[in-house]
Fold:
Amino acid sequence: MVFLCARWGAGGCSSPRVLVMRKERMMRTVMLASLLVGFALPCGAGAIAAQRPEQLSPQVLRYVTVLEPVVALVNVRVIDGTGSPAVDGRTIVIRDGRIAEVGPSTAVTVPPGARVLDFAGHTVIPGIVGLHNHTYYSFGGRSVQMSYTGPRLYLAGGVTTIRTAGAQHPYAELNMKRGIAAGLVPGPRVHASGPYMNGEVGPGGTSPPLMTEADARRVVAYWAEEGATWLKASGSITRAVLGAAIDEAHRRGMGFTGHLCSVTFREAAALGIDNLEHGLITNSDYVKDKRPDVCPPENMRAQVDVDVQGEDVKATFRDLIARGVSVTSTLSVYELFVRERAPLDPRVLEALAPEARQALETDRQALMSTTNFSVPLLLFQKMMQWELAFVRAGGLLAAGVDPWGNGSLPGYGDQRNYEVLVEAGFTPEQAVQIMTLNGARVLREDSLYGSIERGKLADLVVLRGDPVRTPSDIRNVVLVLREGVGYDPARLIADVRGQIGSR
Ligand SMILES: [Zn+2]
Structure:
C-alpha cells in the first residue's frame, strides 16, 4: 500500500511550527519521490492512502466501470481548475492513477493498449474538493451519521476530497475514513476534523467544553492522536482558548478553521487561524459595540448593513490576506434560508429517508413564517459580493456544501455552489478553481491533486454538456474518476435513494 503523507498528516509532532513547516517540505520531497517509484512510506494518523485497483473490495468494485491502468479520455472540453479558460478538443491520458498527459487531441498520442473513452460533447473538470463537507445530517433535533450514504453521494456528485469541518460523531467519521482508505467503502479521501471546538457547552451538546487554555491543549492533543487532521472552532469560544487550541493544533501538524462568532475574523487571523467558514454572514468584525469574547445575538443579521466596498471590509481583507487566512464559501446552504430563493432540488427529495423528507417539508413551511431563522435576500447578495471582492483583493476562496437538515446534501449542494458562484460574478473557470484547486491549496495538498495537470492524481469529473455555457450542466455527472478508478454516479445514487437521514 502506498501512503501519501502531507502536512496535516504529520500527527504527534511536538516541534514548533517553523519546524513543522520545514519537515513538511522534506516530507513532500520524500512523498513525491515515493509516488514516482511506488514504494511504501509509513506515516502518521492523517495519511492519505492511494486507492490501488487491486485493493478495492467487491463492495467498491460494484460501482466501478473504469479500472484499466491506462485510460484515454478523448475529444473532451477541459476546465483545468487553474482558472485558465476552458479548451476544446483535448485528450487526457491516465496511467496508474495519475494524469500522464493532457493536451490537444491532435498532439497527444494515445498509448497502445489504452482504454479509449470518447467523450465528445462532454466537459472534464478536476474532482471537487469540499472543505465544509460534514458526514452527518441533522433534522428534527437529532443528527444522523451518514457513514453509508455520505461517501457514496459525495463521490457521485463529483467530490473526490472532503474536509469535514466539524464532526458530531467523530469516531464514526474516523472509521468511515479508514474504510474508504482501505478500499472497503466507495468515497472521497477524507480529512476528518474531530468534535467542534466550542467554549461553554449546554446539556444537549456533543462537543467537549473548552473553558481554559489547558482544556484546549488537552483536547486538541487527544484528537490529533486519534487521527483528526483539522479542527473547527465554533460558538462561544474565547480568544485565549482559541489561541491555545490553534497553537496546539499547529504544533501537531493539524489545520484549524472556524465558524466564528465570539471571536472576530481579524482577531482570529491575529491568533493564527488557517481558514474561516461561511464568509460575511459570520464575520462579527462588523457588529457595532461587540463585546470581546461574546457572541453578539445579532450576528448573522447585523451583516445586512455592511458596506461591502467600505473600509471595514477592506481592513478585514488586508488582515486575512497578509496572514494567509483562506475563506470557505458555503453559499448553497445559506441560499436555502433565503425565502425568495430556497430552491428545492428534486434529487434531494429522492435521496432523503421518509422521516427526513417530512422534516424538510415542515421546515420549508416554517421558513416562510417570520419567527424562523432566515437570511434576508439583501444579505445573501452581500455575501456573494463580499466573496467576489475578497478574491479580487487577492484572497484565497474555497468552497463546501455544509450539508444540513434544510435540504443541502452531499454532492448536490457542492454542485449548486458552482451555479451560485457564477451568479455572484466569478467566471465559470474561476468558480471551478474555487471548488477544486483552491480547496487543495487550503489543505496544502495542491501538489497532489486539485487541477488537471500532468503528474497529478487523476481525480476527474466527466460532465455531459458544457457548464461554461449552461451552469446547470455541472449536475450532469456521467463518470467520476478518483486516482484513475472510474465510478458510475448512477449506481452510487441508486444505492442511497430514500436513505439520507437514516444511515
Ligand atoms: Zn458546518
